[in-house]
Write a structure and sequence with these properties.
388 residues, alpha/beta, Trna Endonuclease, Chain: A, domain 1, globular
C-alpha cells in the first residue's frame, strides 16, 4: 500500500521513517524521535532507537543518526554521535548520511561507529520511502495533540514524556512508569463513554515499551531457576530495583528488629516474612511477576512488543480483541492492573475501537473496526553493508 506524504513530515522525517522500516524488516523493535533530557533541559533527539534480541541472555541497543541533507557535515556528526552514544549507554551508534564527497568510513572506524554509506542510504530510501501501510510519527502526534487529559495536558505531551525514559535507559524504574502510564490511559478511556482511537494507540505504544523493558531487565536471569526469577521480578516491580537486593535487606532489617525487640523466638520474624509474601502476591503487579518470570517470557515479550508497536501505528483502527496472543496477554495484564473489566476492551471486532483518519478522535462503538494485522513480512534483508 502506498502511503501519501504527511504534510507535517519534512525531508528528514521521511528518511527516518524509511530507515525505521528498514530496521523493522530486520526484526528489530524501533522507536523514532526519542528526546534526550538532562534535568528539565532538552539536550537533543535520537533519530532512531533500535532494540534487538541478540540471544537468550543478550540484548543490543543501537542509536541511529540520520542526515538527509546536501551538506550533512559528516565528520562533525560522527563526533557528536559518539558522545550521544556514551550519554545514553547504547551498545552501538550508526550514522546514515547523504554526504558522498567525504570519505567518512576510516574516521567512523576510528571512532568505533558504524556508517551507512550514501549509496546504501539511497537504496534504503528508494526501497522503503512511501511504501508503508503504517501511520507516521507525525500522524500519531497530530492525533494525540487533539486529546486533552486530566489537568489540561495533551496526550502528545504525555507520550513525549513517556518516550524520554528510553533515553535514560531501560530499567525497572522505566518498566514501572510505563505500566502505570498505560493503566492511567486505560482508566481515562474507561471514564469516557466512548474510547478515543488516539488514546488506544497510546496504550498500545506504552504496552510495547512495557514488553521491551521487561525483556531487557529479565535477560540477566535467563538461565535462573523459576523461583529466583520470581524473586528478581518481585523485588524490581515492588521496590523498583532488584539488582542490589534492596528488598531482601529491608525485609531482613524488619525481621531482625522484630527478633531483637519483640520476639526472641523468631516467630514474629517468620510472620513478617510470610505476611510480606502474601501481601506481594495480592498486589496488582502479581500477574506481571508470574508472566515475566516464565522461562519462555523473553521470546514472547519481544514478539509482543513488535506486535503492539505495529498495532499502534497501523492504518487500521486499534482493535485490542484482534491482537495476536502475545500482544493481547500484555494488554490483558494492564487492564487487570488498572482494575478494569477486560470485556470492555477485549470485545469482538465489531464492537472494537473504530477506524479514523489521523487527527480524528473516534470511539469503540460505531462497529467499523478492522482487525490489526502484523506488518507485512519481506524476504529481502535490505541493502548489504549494515550489520546490527
Amino acid at each position: 500500500m502506498t502511503k501519501q506524504p504527511t504534510p507535517d513530515m519534512d525531508k528528514g522525517g521521511a528518511a527516518e521513517e524509511a530507515l525505521r522500516l528498514y530496521f523493522q524488516q530486520l526484526g528489530a523493535f524501533v522507536v523514532r524521535g526519542v528526546k534526550v533530557r538532562a534535568g528539565k533541559d532538552h539536550v537533543t533527539d535520537i533519530d532512531l532507537w533500535v532494540y534487538t534480541r541478540a540471544s537468550v541472555h543478550a540484548r543490543h541497543v543501537a542509536i541511529v543518526d540520520i542526515k538527509n541533507k546536501k551538506r550533512a557535515k559528516g565528520y562533525e556528526r560522527l563526533i557528536w554521535l559518539k558522545g550521544l552514544q556514551a550519554a545514553v549507554g547504547a551498545d552501538e551508534a550508526i550514522v546514515a548520511t547523504t554526504a558522498s564527497k567525504e570519505d567518512l568510513a576510516p574516521f567512523a572506524t576510528r571512532m568505533g561507529l558504524k556508517l551507512l554509506s550514501s549509496q546504501v542510504f539511497k537504496a534504503v530510501m528508494a526501497r522503503y520511502s512511501g511504501a508503508s501501510d503504517r501511520l507516521t510519527s507525525e500522524d500519531l502526534e497530530k492525533m494525540w495533540r487533539s486529546v486533552r487529559l486530566e489537568g489540561g495536558e495533551t496526550l502528545a505531551a504525555r507520550m513525549e514524556t513517556n518516550l524520554v525514559e528510553i533515553g535514560l535507559g531501560l530499567s525497572f524504574t522505566a518498566l514501572n512508569i510505563w505500566i502505570d502510564e498505560a493503566a492511567k490511559l486505560l482508566v481515562h478511556s474507561h471514564d469516557h463513554e466512548r474510547v478515543p482511537a488516539a488514546v488506544a494507540r497510546a496504550v498500545l505504544l506504552c504496552a510495547s515499551l512495557v514488553a521491551i523493558a521487561a525483556d531487557y531487565v529479565g535477560r540477566t536471569t535467563a538461565f535462573g531457576d523459576p523461583e529466583s526469577r520470581r524473586t528478581y521480578f518481585r523485588e524490581g516491580l515492588v521496590f523498583g530495583n532488584a539488582a542490589d537486593g534492596s528488598a531482601s535487606r529491608y525485609l531482613g532489617f524488619a525481621e531482625r528488629v522484630a527478633t531483637d525487640y519483640l520476639d526472641k523466638t523468631g516467630a514474629a520474624a517468620a510472620t513478617i516474612r510470610s505476611g510480606f509474601q502474601r501481601a506481594v502476591e495480592n498486589l496488582p503487579v502479581g500477574p506481571f511477576i508470574d508472566f515475566f518470570s516464565r522461562p519462555a517470557a523473553g521470546r514472547e515479550l519481544i514478539d509482543a512488543a513488535i506486535q503492539l508497536e505495529a498495532a499502534a501505528f497501523a492504518q487500521a483502527a486499534p482493535n485490542f480483541a484482534g491482537l495476536p496472543p502475545e500482544a493481547k496477554t500484555i494488554i490483558g495484564l494492564l487492564i487487570d492492573y488498572a482494575g478494569l473489566d477486560r470485556r470492555k476492551f477485549l470485545r469482538a471486532a465489531d464492537q472494537a475501537i473504530s477506524r479514523g483518519r489521523p487527527n480524528a478522535e473516534t470511539d469503540i462503538n460505531d462497529g467499523t473496526a478492522r482487525t490489526v494485522s502484523e506488518p507485512p513480512k519481506d524476504e529481502e534483508k535490505g541493502p548489504d553493508g549494515l550489520l546490527l
